[in-house]
Amino acid sequence: MDKYRRRRGFDFGDFEITKREILASISIIAIMLLVGVLIAGKISDWELDQNEKYNKAIKIETQDLFEYGMRTNVGNAFVYGDLEAVDTVTYPELDSAYMYVEKVKERYTKHTRQVSHTRTVNGKTQTYYTTETYWTWDRVGSEEQICKEISFLGHIFASEKIDFPGTEYIDTIKESSHVRYKYYGVGLRFTGTIFADLKDGTIPNNTPFYENKSIKETVDYLESGSMLIIFWIFWIILIGFCVYGFYYIDNEWLE
Q1: What pTM does this model have?
Q2: Is the pLDDT at 228 greater than 90, yes or no?
Q3: Do 131 and 32 belong to one domain?
Q4: Residues 133, 136, 138, CA angle at the centre, nearest 5°?
Q5: Contact between 197 and 75 (Cβ < 8 Å)
Q6: Four-residue CA torsion sign, 122, 125, 131, 133
């Protein structure tokens, strides 16, 4: 029976793929592709709705128009300007001030781990373990300071209104041979674009800030359609795993 099955399929050692399994897997691929097309259609519709929202949004580059838009509830808008800290924060041991600064405490800590080795005794391979000691700098605590107010395109907001750009490494200061502090911060001034719903005299909390991007660059970035590409990459990988799993299991019901 095994020889008969091998003549009808392909032997890969751990498992065998028969012609009937190949035909069944084609059906699985077709069904999953159909489901993928339906899901992709929903994603595409959502992206088109988002793109329409971006295209209809007004474009603002002056303080007067920005403040007028917030007063009159103009809705979605791309606004280009400078993001600056009104008040600044720092630690005494640092030379500069920042919009945001984080102080991370690290301790040089001793660890042990089991390391496996092999040896041959009387022609037989044996595994034995030894204890290895190693040291690492481990994070044991942190604290942060955030400015209270920021200015964007000349208008002052509470700092939580706009997401700050990412932190950058500032410095490392050692307290002792086993304790050190690492500092990360956000500078005082950036230029870029926000996309926000202008209403009630303000903008929403956590409005995204696109650093070093003009309005056109921000629109192009948001309209990139990357979600659809990511979905198809994920879906094709999933199909591959499903087909492999189907081949791997014993499909005697197909015989």
Answers
A1: 0.71
A2: no
A3: no
A4: 135
A5: yes
A6: positive
